Amino acid sequence: MDKNSIIGFVLIALILFGFTFFESSQSRKRNEQQRQLDSIALANMPVDTNSVAAAVIPELVQADSAENDQAIYSDSMLEAAHGAEGEIITLENELVKLEFTSRGAQPYSAKLKKYSSYGGNELFLFKGGDAEYAVSIYAGQYIRTTDFNFSVSEHSDSTVTFRLPFQSGGYIEQSYVLQKDGYKVDNLLSFVGMQNVIPRNVGSYDIDFNVTVPRMEKGYKNESQYSKLDYYFDGDKKPSEIGRGRSASKSIGSRLSWFAFQQQFFSAIMCAPQEFANGEVSVKFVPENDPSHNLMQCSARMRADFRPAESVAVPYEFYFGPNHFNTLKSFNRKYEKIIPLGGSLVGWFTRYAIIPMFNFFSRFISNFGLIILLMTLVIKTVVFPLTYKSYSSSAKMQVLRPEIEKINAKYPKQEDAMKKQQATMDLYKRAGVNTMGGCLPTLLTFPILWAMFRFFPASIELRQQPFLWCDDLSAYDSILDYGVRIPILGDHLSLFALLMAVVMWLYAKMTTANQAASNDPTASSMKFMTLWMMPIMMFFICNNLSAALSYYYLLSQLIAIIQTWVIKKFFVHPEQIMAKLKASEGKPLPKSKWQQRLEAAQKMQEQQNKRR
């Protein structure tokens, strides 16, 4: 490179540097002049408490006194709103009291008036400052609404509108309308006159909704197990979920309609009628011994489509209220699906049988312990035809016990097990006892038991309802607090769970008493499981669950004992069974396919023994 080329490059560099410095200086002067003009213009405006100008005049004057190199935003009105203090605005009806802060134009706290947390304190779905609702968009600079104080342009008992003005004359607006007699809040996000501020190539904006949910119930374990984060895709049968006592996060790559921060009995739901484009959700559970007494931290970062125009208005909906089935169902958005009522069969039975029956009794009876008793009686009466065969077979076997003991004495050896089983089945058939006939009806009652297992802990109607020694049927009852947590058992003793286990043992004792002594290790093992393991396992499971659930299982077992006794006393006649048995002696009986296979297996075993 020769000398002239070097000199040329140096001159070009000096010209570019000088031009850049000159333009920067001129830009600062123009911004300063514009700032002064805006301040003068706003100062000369008539003062109106509802106007945007009145709200930002003090902030503009304060911003003008600051040095230019301390400004964060090139827009003077944004700079003023950035440094301003917020105010609290209240919307209220008979059910809920909501506080909003002008700092970010967002919800500040949500108190449900008709409910209280365990201990009698006011119930907050989220307390002051424990929620964040931020909208982020690129408008020449990256704008996040929580960084600015909005002016209040409209306010009544049920409506508030916030505005964030730009020096170009446009503004971002957040409007909230609280439903008159409900928990729904309509939110309208608007971008007005922003077509010259937001670049035309901006096709989306972000929404961040974060809530810290406090603990509200008696037992942390039960509350956390029924708390989760739900999100719903339009057209699905039910929402997807994460959580249930475990911290988790999920990236969602497709369009979704709504998401819910769900505590055991209350939820904060945000719905986008025009759908979110995609998003990320997460839930983090706070440890039980944390001094904050919070339950979980929920967050959702959603992306929404944006189409630049002179005026863009996007509707959203919030729900801050209880997980009451009929209330959630009334929105027709499948909100009620967040309540854990079981799978297809169990959920169907709960929705169309258990809940209507529960609501019917609730119209006339205020004592929920009595309601559960009546429900149990109805259910046991309805399924009695299905369980009758099982109870009847059990009673008949007790009558045949002496005959079964004779068969056991006749075939004491292990290699005669097939002969003993064949003789036993022959005895049952001659006496008219179908040992398999009671199995299927009993299995058909399991979905009912599982439906009740899901219904009681999720039923908000039982929340804080006392009964006998229990102060809250939705939580565990405690007659003894240990003061220290014991693995599996917990830190207390539930009397309902203990009584349920004792009655379950008595019922198992009644049914297994019909069985004759046997050398078969499998039969002995099954008897041990039924008599001891099942009651003990159920006690440990129910000790920390809803008292209503343990109470229902207790009633169910008591009624089963009574039904078995009634069948044995009035429907099973030992003399008729023995007469039928003697009448069939010496007569050939038709063999079932199962009995034919059993005899074939017996012959095969005998042949193998001979070969040995």
Strand order of the largest sheet: 7-8-9-10-19-16-15-12-13
The level 1 CATH classification of the domain at 85-340 is: Mainly Beta
Approximately how much helix is present in the residues? 40-55%
Largest sheet: 9 strands, antiparallel
Reported by name, the CATH topology of the domain at 85-340 is: Beta-galactosidase, Chain A, domain 5
Looking at the overall shape, the CATH architecture of the domain at 85-340 is: Distorted Sandwich
N-end to C-end Cα span: 107 Å
The rough form would be described as: elongated
Low-confidence stretches: 30-68
- What is the strand tally? 21
Report the total helices. 17
- What Rg do the Cα atoms give? 36 Å
- How much of the polypeptide forms β-strand, as a percent range? 25-35%
How does the helix and strand content classify structurally? alpha+beta
Give the integer mean of the pLDDT values: 81
Structure description:
- This protein has 612 residues and is of the alpha+beta class.
- Among the domains are: 62 residues, no CATH class; 256 residues, Beta-galactosidase, Chain A, domain 5.
- The chain is built from 17 helices and 21 strands.
- The strands form four sheets. Strands 7-8-9-10-19-16-15-12-13 form a nine-stranded antiparallel beta sheet. A six-stranded antiparallel beta sheet has the order 6-5-11-18-17-14.
- The protein starts with a helix and ends with a helix.
